[in-house]
Design goal:
Layout: H1 8-13, H2 18-29, H3 37-44, H4 48-59, H5 63-81, H6 86-92, H7 98-109, H8 113-121
Length: about 120
Amino acid sequence: MGGQSQFSAVLDITPTSGRVRDVLYYARDHLRESLSVERLAEVACISPRQFSRTFFNATGMTPAKAIERLRLDVARPRIEETLEPLEQIARDVGFGSAEKMCRSCLNVFGRTSQELRRAARK
C-alpha cells in the first residue's frame, strides 16, 4: 500500500517546506494511526502551535484537512474498484468507521461512499 503513485492528494498539496513534506510522507505511511497535530508536530520536531502555522503556510490547509484528503485518496480506489466492506476500508485508512468516511466523501466529493461505489459500477 505504499509508494508515491498513491500519493496524489499530497502531491496536489505541494508543500514548500521539507518538514511538512516529511510529515505528509509519514502520515501517508501511518494512516491507521491517530494523526493528531501533536503527533505530527513531533515528527516535524517543532511545537504543535508552530507546526499548525507552518503546515498551513506551506499547504494552504489545516493538518486535519490534509489527513482527510490523504485518507480519501487511499480509500477511493478501494471503494470504487473492490467489493471490500466499507467498514473495513474505513478502518484500514484511519477513519475509524464507515459513517465518518461517508461524511468525508460527501464533504470532499459531493457523494457518499455508497454513491461513489454505485457510480463506479455503472
